[in-house]
Amino acid sequence: MKALIWHKNGKTEVVRKEIPKIQDSRDAIVKVKLSSICTSDLHIIHGSVPRAIPETVLGHEFVGEVVQLGDAIKNIKIGDRVAVNCETFCGECFFCKKGFINNCEKGGWELGCTIDGCHAEYVRVPFADTGLTKLPKNVSYENALFVGDILSSGYFGAKMCEIQEEDSIAIIGAGPVGLCAMMCAKYLGAKNVIAIDINENRLNIAKKEKLANYFINPNKTDVETEIKKLTNNHGADGVIECAGGINTFEMSWKIARANAIVAIVAMYEQNQTLPLPQMYGKNLTFKTGGVDAVHCKELLDLISQDKISTDFLITHRIHMDNIEQGYRIFKNKDCLKIAIGFYED
User: Fold this and answer.
1) Are 92 and 107 a contacting pair, CB within 8 Å?
2) pTM of the model
3) What is the pLDDT of residues 122-132, one digit of tens each?
4) Contact 101/312 with Cβ under 8 angstroms?
């Protein structure tokens, strides 16, 4: 089969690999129908994920059809259409039982990081009974493509903010995760959603899709001043940091009101500073992640019921043969997400 691997020198290569085999009774082999490229794939290539293993097949965001199952899998059948969780988790350890699946003692972020991922024609998925979610009949592969990663990440960020009915929630970054966070914050009951990004095109997407109430471009106006105008001089009730830029962590705590929650779902390539003397008295709560993507079934049900939709995120569709070109396209800020199709030779 064809697969895209990465090398320690920061280059990628399409290679031929053997189709994966069942190695454990809780494994499944999934034939990839659609996959997508994630910013964290770029972080791996750049050497910013120390635990990532070179020569591994990249990718962790995908949907597909189950073609083989280990003997222990009872909740999924061969032929089922499934969304695949970006996290591998046993469901039984200390952290899994608390819902902290990113910290699973037997798994965590493995696909495309420490074991072969989805930028291939077939994938072995460990702990398939927890990591696969069957698609409702009226949900297509494209409808479900982002459930296991960026939609779960946006939902995770919104949930961390403990949103209440009158809250104003600021989302830094109108990229794919940020747009999902806006959608989820609205669904969870935020009165006002404030979108912040230096990319006017992405702000316009948030406006067109009615994901936010207010839109701020830091290159055109002072963010702190604007946030205070919109919040009776208090600051945002919750902030979801999805950008991972040079100054966006600092922005996140500066625009939060006293006693607010700041949810960090962005992945940074450099250390960030927590200037506690400047924050003293604001009584902020910081929550960070690694997404605990434990709500895939709920999110699929919401898609099935037309309560949320991520279809607009797909700005490009390409064939596996052009996947390296897809990586180049993905670096362009005019691209939101790419649907990569895999076909028989």
Assistant:
1) no
2) 0.94
3) 999 999 999 99
4) no
